[in-house]
Amino acid sequence: MNDYTSTNTIPESAKINLEKKGFLDIELDPSLDLFAEIERLKKEKKAVVLAHYYQEPDIQDVADYIGDSLGLAQQAEKTKADMIVFAGVHFMAETAKILNPSKKVVIPDLKAGCSLSDSCPPPLFKKFKEQHPDHVVVSYINCSAGIKALSDVICTSSNAKIIVESFPESQKIIFAPDKNLGAYINKVTGRNMLLWNGACMVHEIFSLEKITRLKVRHPNAKLIAHPECEDPILRIADYIGSTTGLLKFTQSDSASEYIVATETGILHQMMRASPGKTFIPAPPENNCACNDCPHMKLNTLEKIYLCMEYESPEILMDPELRSAAKIPIDRMLEISQKAGL
Ligand code: 13P
Ligand code: SF4
Predict the structure, then answer these.
(1) How far apart are CA 271 and CA 293, in angstroms?
(2) Domain 208-281 belongs in CATH node 3.40.50.10800
(3) Cα(56) to centroid of ligand 2, in Å?
(4) Is the model's pTM score more than 0.85?
(5) Could you tell me if 300 and 108 are in contact, meaning their C-beta atoms sit under 8 angstroms apart?
(6) Ligand 2 atom nearest to CA at 295
């Protein structure tokens, strides 16, 4: 047994740095087989690794479950594991903790946040809500526990339409925090929800001009887009759906080429599921890798190993906030289950 597997006591220097850095910065033996070590830790600690499609391929390969936000919440609710290792961003791990207060939920990097969640601070949203007392609040799961606690029901990109349609047409609704998803749901349901002005930094960066040029060069390629994209992109998309929706579409559809307007991590599963097909990441405005989510990509295999070994950083929550945030999540899970999702 080497130094790294013999103890799970966090070295003092790493403890001091944890708060500042958000992850355990402990030097690892480069010969360590991280894949084998993570498998060992899963068994030893009765841990389950849940990963979002936007995680890097190595992380997806060690995960016990890979999915979209709804699938991950559903897995988190039903897992029998003692420890949930959440390879995703903070609001996702927080949702897992809300659903499992007695389980230990660890995240590889506490600083893996979300620009969309950050665009909706609870004190500001509370004031906004107070200005519209006759509205119910539907919040996209990409928000903090503070926003969830102020919401009537949560939704994800795969159930947003069903959740909104669960209210009578006459019901006034505030939709937060994603204005693009909200506008798309307004369009497909004919509702007129009041939208919070938030957006995702990754899905707002796609260039209509470059995608149009790409479509000319690849006339048979279908454009598939996540509903967090802006309206001009969604207007020219052949299919719009959550990450799971996009993946399933590429498996069942007859085309052999796709331009994919969402975070690039999903391409790993698309290529694996349909090895004969071509997947082209939709180009962003600048010559940057802006279609890689900088928050999702903070997680690494090393950090996964370290957070499992030392069971830190852990998601800890105020019990009152947790209970208040659970009500609208439970409501979402119930409506989704009834709808067969
Ligand atoms: P889904 O997981 O619902 O597809 O949403 C994507 C996303 O942006 C997660 O942060
Ligand atoms: Fe948030 Fe966008 Fe990253 Fe998803 S892709 S975690 S919405 S910043």
Answers:
(1) 19
(2) yes
(3) 14
(4) yes
(5) yes
(6) 3
